[in-house]
């Protein structure tokens, strides 16, 4: 087995971003950080469980510019409140509003940020009990305080309304 | 997304995150995390590779059902198809010319202004 290159490690995004902000002349960003982490053991086997899919992708909006593959960063395509979409079809969700790697990926295949087709397949195959009737979208561009005080309780409420046993969260 | 996973978990809903930013997710501290060492934007698997996408979901489900404690990270064994040098590019100021940095700054200011006006419009409703 050959040795890997020195740089072949997970990208240190926090350090990269700190250096980037300093160079551009912006104040440092402080990422959320906790010493304690909650843990709820699985109470329902997945074969019987109802899973809620949660995404940071944005519903396509007409009239706010390019949101397609290779689109430049599109702040006008952002959204600011939690939304829900039916999970039995594939909604048109895009990622032009976030800072994905535009050099090394093109956003041509929505299955790279929304594993809904795979989840539907897992239900069909009997691996997973069911999907909740809705998937949920959460904004990422607001303060950590807004996420904790407004968005997270709203997603919890919707997950409970839908009878979710477990949740899969996929940041874009 | 990490904050949300923590909130759901604290309120009785077991969670798993699929993601590509290992340090940021682990710094926050989440219950269960399937890490794919891919460019940002590919949390659910490699593009146009249905087999890899299925395998990525299956790994996440395995993490969900088998993690023994909080802060369980599993790294997907799948590799990004290109040479690993893609990792040197993302927002790397050491690889940018002064002109590129100036352009980035202009672009960043534009983005912030657009996002702010949109957010203000939403909050006025």
List the helices and strands and how they pair.
The complex is a heterodimer of chains A (172) and B (125).
Chain A: H1 13-24, E1 50-55, E2 58-59, E3 83-86, E4 93-94, H2 116-124, E5 130-131, E6 134-137, H3 144-161, E7 166-170
Parallel strand pairs in A: 1-5, 1-6, 1-7
Antiparallel strand pairs in A: 2-4, 3-6
Chain B: H1 2-10, E1 15-19, H2 22-28, E2 32-35, H3 50-66, E3 72-75, H4 98-124
Parallel strand pairs in B: 1-2, 2-3
Notes on the protein architecture:
The complex is a heterodimer of chains A (172) and B (125). The radius of gyration of chain A is 18 Å and the shape is globular. In chain A, strands 1, 3, 5, 6 and 7 form a 5-stranded mixed sheet that branches. Chain A has a two-stranded antiparallel sheet with strand order 2-4. Chain A has one domain (50-170). Chain A has 3 helices and 7 strands, in the order αββββαββαβ. Chain A starts with 12 loop residues before the first helix and ends with a strand. Chain A is of the alpha/beta class and 172 residues long. Chain B contains 4 helices and 3 strands; from the N terminus they run αβαβαβα. The interface between A and B is large, with 87 and 82 residues.
